[in-house]
Design brief:
The chain is of the alpha+beta class. The protein is built from 3 helices and 3 strands; from the N terminus they run βαββαα. The protein is globular and about 35 Å long.
Length: about 90
């Protein structure tokens, strides 16, 4: 079933490239990222709760947590730094 999640720290096409590539490499075949709204939205085909948790963990590891995730000040800074790096890599690839 397709599910849509509001995701923080997505700014541009570089972020979209990184997210799409990372998710497709682990088997998420249908990945859509909507840059037209704030917070940004990512839509994927998710079959079960385990796959949903895996999806969220991948995004977080790249610096793109769900908009609803609770984050402390220090964690927020780390996630933003990760997302800047992920974005830059996405622009290069």
């Amino acid at each position: 079933m397709k599910q849509t999640f509001e995701v923080a720290n997505i700014r541009c096409g570089g972020c979209v490239n990184t997210i799409t590539k990372a998710l497709q490499e682990v088997g998420f075949t249908e990945v859509e990222v909507d840059l037209s709204c704030e917070p940004r939205k990512v839509t994927v085909e998710i079959a079960n709760e385990v796959q949903s948790a895996y999806f969220k963990a991948i995004l977080r590891s790249l610096g793109y947590p769900l908009a609803t995730d609770e984050r402390g000040f220090g964690e927020e800074a780390i996630l933003k730094a990760k997302s800047f790096v992920s974005c830059a890599i996405g622009k290069i690839n």
